[in-house]
Amino acid sequence: MQYTRLGNTGLIVSRFAFGCMTFGSGEGAFGSVYKVDQDGANNLVARALDGGVNFFNTADAYANGQSEEMLGRALGKRRQDVVIASKVGNRMGDALIDQGLSRQHILSSVQGSLKRLGSDYIDVYLVHRLDPYTPLEETLEALDYVVRQGMVRYIGFSNWPTWLAAKAVGLQREYKWAQFRAAEMYYSLVGRDLEHEMLPFAQDAGIGIQVWSPLAGGFLSGKYTRENPGGNGGRLTGFDIIPFDREHGYDVVEKLREIGTKHKASPAQVALAWLLSRSITAVLVGASKISQLDDNLGATELELSADELQELDKLTEPTAIYPNWFNAAIYDAAVRDALAKRG
Q1: Residue range 93-149, pLDDT digits in tens
Q2: Has residue 32 got a pLDDT over 80?
Q3: Among 184, 199, 216, 314, fewest CB within 10 Å belongs to which?
């Protein structure tokens, strides 16, 4: 296992974090996601620990709290040895106030999460989504409060646009509130939007990126093909929220197979190894079976060559957006060349 610091902190985390979204049971679209019972959770957590994982990710809304409860039971006495990230913001009940990022909901939710996890603190507490109805200052002050009370040790955000995260960091510095040190964001070979703004911002602000859905909902595992687009009833047949060009995606999967064959590695391992080469802190890997987890963890032993990384980069390079393309084209070549000679 590889390890790193979480952003600009002294917290050491494994570069693979185990995502517990599969823990619990549910109906409808989530029935294809929530499908691991307590025995299964115990086995998966034990295997992750054996593989060197010390970072576990969940949320209050996953299976309406079941995920947190099952993770807490599965860790048991090992809780003190690991880092737990959980999230707040999504609806947890029928009442209008039982959602969002108000002070009321954050304080109520953190207490609920602590009880379900069987812990007196949460290592990393992330706001799960945007809340357009709550002032940003109210959310940030509430997060600062739970840190000062010792209920939470580090805070972060998930699924926020860069401009809002940057505004939040400015307010946190101005008012000397607890700083964002983590962000949970979508990033994969078929979804590299994060590279436009969020990745450079996070590096500058000392925020560690945790990547959710690194295989694009399982698409990059290789089970979905032009000949078998349903993947024999895979997750994407019931829970398909990530937009990307499927036709181009099939080309990416073919390249993953080609590279994987040279290394005796699966397409998923190649996709995960590419992510580990990027400027991110941790990759969330979720699983409903031990075999899936073992395959994912095997990516830490896969070392792609510079040429292979370049092939994947070129094949999946995102289209530049304004003003990025303008600034890339308009620069002072003389200064660049002069500084390059010194290096």
Answers
A1: 889 999 999 999 999 999 999 999 999 999 999 999 999 999 999 999 999 999 999
A2: no
A3: 314
Q: At residue 4, what is the residue type?
A: T
Taken in order of first residue, the domains within the chain and their CATH numbers are 3-342 (3.20.20.100)
Look at the block and give the residue holding tokens 């101005």.
174
62 part of the active site: yes
| 1 contacts 301 by C-beta, under 8 angstroms | no
Mean pLDDT of the chain: 92
CB atoms within 10 A of CB 159: 16
- Are 24 and 62 in contact by the 8 Å Cβ rule? The answer is yes
Q: Which of 62, 154, 187, 224 is catalytic?
A: 62
Concatenated DSSP letters of 10-74: S-EEESEEEE-TTBEE--GGGGGT-EE-HHHHHHHHHHHHHTT--EEE--TTGGGGHHHHHHHHH
Distances (CA, A) of 44 to 22, 70, 190, 239: 11, 11, 27, 22
